[in-house]
Specification:
heterotrimer, A mainly alpha, B mainly alpha, C alpha/beta, A: MetI-like fold, about 75% helix, about 0% strand, flat, B: MetI-like fold, 14 helices
Chain lengths: ~280, ~300, ~450
Amino acid sequence: MAIKNPLAKLIIWVVLLIWGIAVIYPLLWTLLDALKNNEQFFLNMPWALPKFPLLWSNFSYVWTKYNFSTYFLNSIVVTVGSTLLGMILSAMTAYILARYEFKGSNVLFTIYVASMMIPFALALIPLFFLLNDLHLVNTWLGLILVYAALNLPFGIFLLVGFYKSLPKEIEEAAIIDGTSHYGTFFRVMLPLSQPGLITVMITNMLNNWNEYFLGVVLTNEPTKYTLPIGLAVMQAEMQYRVEWGPLFAGLLITTLPTLMIYIIFQRQIASGITAGAVK
Amino acid sequence: MKTSSKKLSRNLFIASFIIPTFLFFCLFTVYPVIQALQKSMYDWSGMSENSKFIGFDNFKDMFNDPIIWTAIGNDYFLVVGKVIGIMLLATFFAVALTRFRLRSAGFFRAIFFIPNVISVVVIGVLWNFIYNPQIGFLNAFLALFTGSKVDITWLGFPKHTIWMLLPPTIWAGIGFYMILMIAAIVNIPASYYEAANIDGAGQWSQFRNITMPLIWEQIKVSIINIVITTLNGSFVIVQLMTNGGQPDNTTHVMGSYLYRMAFQQYHFGYGAAIGVAILIISLITTLILQRIMRQETIEMH
Amino acid sequence: MNMKKWSTMGLAASMVLVAAGCGKTAAPASETTKPAASTAPTAAATAAASAAPTAAAAKKLTGDFEIQYFVGGYGDKWWKKVIADFQAANPDLKIKESAGPKINEQMKPRWIAGNPPDFVYIDGPELFDRQMVTDGLLEDLTDWYKDAKNVDGDKISDLLAQQPPQYDGKIYNIPFVLNSWGIFYDKALFKDKGWAEPKDFEDFMKESDTIKAAGINPFIHTGKYPYYINGAFLFPAIVSANNNDYKLLQDMANNNPEAWKNPAILKGLDKIVQMRDKGFIDKASVQINHTDSQSLFLQHKDAFIPNGLWLPNEMAKDVPQGFDFGFIPSITQDKGGKVVANTSTATFAIAKKAKNKDAAKAFMQFVFAKAQAGQWAELSGAPSNIKGDISSTKAPNFVKDAAKYLSSSDTVVVPTVSFAADVDKAMQDATVALTIGTITPQEWVKRVSDVVAKQKK
């Protein structure tokens, strides 16, 4: 439904534009700063444009000298693994909690939601000892399992909301058709919750990709660092002011993949699956 | 009519989906967290091998600690501010970018998420800059209107610096809730709106009568999520912009105070007690909220 | 988004922590070269090679030996070199280095589990000597230290400019890096404007009037890290007001309640109040971090800044042409009073549960030799704690100034005082509140004394 009132349309456009600028600017700023060399930073005019030649070399510098290529690989493996695992497990649990009554389902849901309320940083030390006993320190698998577990509460919380908002007729139709519970879930409900799933996927991906606090203790071998850890270490080594161009380049390398994934998938969210499927 | 074998297959189904995941979750999350929260009954520096059991002393100290009460107040201030700010703007954007058939809606949808993706560090540096008294953007902008130099120390107010933390957190949080609601809105069958259009209902009435009720679940989820994550996590921005509570502990939130106590002042036990407090406060707040919002749902239908 | 906030929290927090750590001894300090430095390289190789076997009394070290060292503003060049030399002298010893900017957090679980490294360099965030002593993590070195000799055969206690701190009369860690707090200004600017370099508080206040009239803020500090103004301004002020007796600070740090009633504290605080009331403190101070305050200082927006000797190095790339760092350890003394130099150190220690204490002690003897310690200044850009260390002809001006003060008998050199974490934080909070006028000096004392009273012995 289009807006007919021209004044309303104008106001809406202005608001959108202002907001658009407000959100693009920092990204642009990060990019511009990534292309500067040290001297330009120390002119203390952070809003100034970079001078030519633009230092695209800052990116390759960070990629090779600071081992960002290794960190990138680790981040990809850990993030993909944990996000997928978390997604599937969340969806399965959320579906049950939203659509099936059984004794204790409320308690279970409360436990999951409540665990979001705990500052997980406290659990760092016990978690380290746990992984140590399982010989999972400094491994991809260790991080994947921990991150997936951490994804569960929010994923379940969110997907329960989604599943609850889907009409009951869908399952009833499937059951009348004779589909098994498993079939109903995997072939009907899961696809229908795609927008919700994608939202969960993006959120979890973001969290897992950027996770730093646990990672730095659970992986102390530099070869196993993920990007955020590598970034923090690099920044600490550079003593906070010495190589800002590469620092921003590193920040961008860390930021861009999630942005790309979001841009690709947000289209799917927005187009959604119309309830034509219900009929 | 459920035969016993149908019941069995149903229960097996439920169990297979629920139990393995729950066990996995308990092992990697619940178990370490309980161990950590246990420490709230101990006096532990966070580094030594020994800890002394002191029962509820940490909690008694907490009750008498004025900073905790300031922190709780700040937390709720941020919660209310963020819920209002984020929900208003996010809903507006979600509706604008789905229902209004604007061109470039896709473009805006894509870029509005950027603040959520940018590292919080960049956000902190950026906003620190905006608020910088000498060379910051805000003072420069204001100076355009006053004609003379403005040098307000935005992050140095003796009592109200916490207000300044609201803009960055709202700005950084909107994108996510926006897509949440976009996802909800697109699930509404187009037929409902078509029917309403035929009936001659205006956009605002369509919003109130169709959109709102049908995305109410997601609105609830969003509000609760904002509450929980603010009570639990907003300390990142506090840490970045005020180095944990400056000036003089007026900007502490529970999370930043926990971090300082547990990791920087070597009172891990006390920090754990704060963690327990955060948990209890979040639970109570969420329960109350759910009760309030459930009534809203009833009224809506 | 709690997880995102947690994950990036760590990043943020670490940046904050590192920035904070940069302010303390972890930051790169002045480029002092020692007199021994120029002769050291050649002497070092031969000294180390020949000294080690003899000093160690031909006892070859065997087994495993692990060193934990934080890598911050001082870098790791010195460590790599010294450890390589030590390995060469002890080929049967398996040395493991646990090092990096995050090493303290990464090693924490080991300490908690009772499985620490043997030798530790106490510096950087999340590692604090006083707390480690309280937690019983460090080996008691009191007896060892009495007669300990370095690999050159010299008694270590004779060589050190500053003796190790004592906790209840016992020694657990030995200072290696020696730095000093003080007040910086630009000599070139002062010369240009015809301003005199202040020698005491009265001068300072008078000059500040002139400076303010000329449109420049006299004083700036970092409100986000109040330990700067505490270290470089308040503590020297207290010592000066206490007749130059620094034992007061040590008593305060030992949580002695009587010490906290000493009127010298109020007198010291009053100096801050005087500065504040005359509008000498840059209003922006309260909300900026150390690098911002330092930038403003370098741009001549402010004339004086409290800081440590690492300042010029830390801001090396930022320093405008012609800037000439002037340094005076304190300007809070009364007219004709002595300068007070409040030092800060980074120390070495041995874990109580170390598995190879022999190797750790041998390493201690190794690094405190002129050869090794001499290389510290070259390779890290900071002064070491070996006597006669700080003066040199090739050193920058402010280092020579610092050296002159530190070796002068007219300077009160205060051995490093470390307060309990709670007390330190209370002092920082209170000082910021004092600078913006929300509390009075009496309230400052009351607040901090209350926290002191709660400290357990």
